């Protein structure tokens, strides 16, 4: 009984909760440790799945709708965007084994660059804003490397 109490937290998440928690941590979203946020999203995804099944959707279709609900607005993290820029544009300047530390060092310094873009838009990658943000992050990274190096 006492052991169950000690394991409360991530161990009592549903499938959707565990999936979302892993997704948020992997992509380094700010909500990665927000259990209330994760639970609310997971509950909404489970409800979507159940409702879709009742309405006659096949299992795969209901699962697709549930995952869409779970991840709505969470397709682009600041970390993932900066990681993409560093990996694609600065592979020669920032060795792969130093990229993680470099991104963590640079991320707080480029926060203002993100402030004018809506990363919660699920179609952000299809917009011209995506290209503008990518270009701004590339420029900020160039300036940082020129000033401080890796």
Give a short overview.
The chain has eight helices and no strands. It has helices spanning 2-6, 15-26, 35-54, 59-71, 78-89, 96-106, 111-114, 128-148. It starts with a helix and ends with a helix.
Blueprint (SSEs and pairs):
Blueprint: H1 2-6, H2 15-26, H3 35-54, H4 59-71, H5 78-89, H6 96-106, H7 111-114, H8 128-148
Describe the protein's architecture and organization.
- The protein has helices spanning 2-6, 15-26, 35-54, 59-71, 78-89, 96-106, 111-114, 128-148.
- The protein starts with a helix and ends with a helix.
- With 150 residues, it is mostly helical.
- Helix 5 (78-89) packs across helix 6.
- Mean pLDDT is 88; it is low at 1-10.
- The longest helix has 21 residues, at 128-148.
- It is built from eight helices and no strands.
Order of helices and strands: HHHHHHHH
The Cα radius of gyration reads 19 Å
- Helix vs. strand class: mainly alpha
User: What spatial form do the alpha-carbon principal axes imply?
Assistant: elongated
Unreliably modeled segments: 1-10
What is the β-strand count?
Answer: 0
The whole-number mean of residue pLDDT values reads 88
- Please count the helical segments: 8
Helix content: 55-70%
Largest sheet: none
Report, as a whole number of angstroms, the end-to-end distance. 50 Å
The percentage of residues in β strands lies in under 5%
């Amino acid at each position: 009984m006492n052991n169950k109490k000690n394991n409360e937290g991530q161990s009592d998440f549903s499938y959707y909760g565990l999936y979302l928690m892993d997704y948020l941590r992997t992509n380094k979203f700010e909500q990665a440790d927000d259990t209330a946020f994760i639970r609310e999203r997971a509950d909404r995804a489970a409800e979507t799945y159940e409702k879709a099944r009742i309405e006659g959707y096949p299992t795969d279709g209901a699962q697709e709708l549930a995952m869409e609900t779970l991840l709505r607005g969470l397709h682009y993290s600041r970390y993932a965007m900066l990681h993409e820029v560093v990996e694609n544009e600065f592979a020669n300047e920032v060795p792969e084994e130093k990229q993680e530390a470099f991104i963590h060092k640079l991320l707080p310094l480029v926060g203002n660059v993100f402030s004018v873009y809506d990363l919660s838009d699920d179609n952000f990658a299809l917009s011209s804003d995506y290209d503008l943000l990518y270009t701004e992050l590339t420029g900020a990274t160039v300036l940082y490397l020129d000033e401080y190096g890796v």
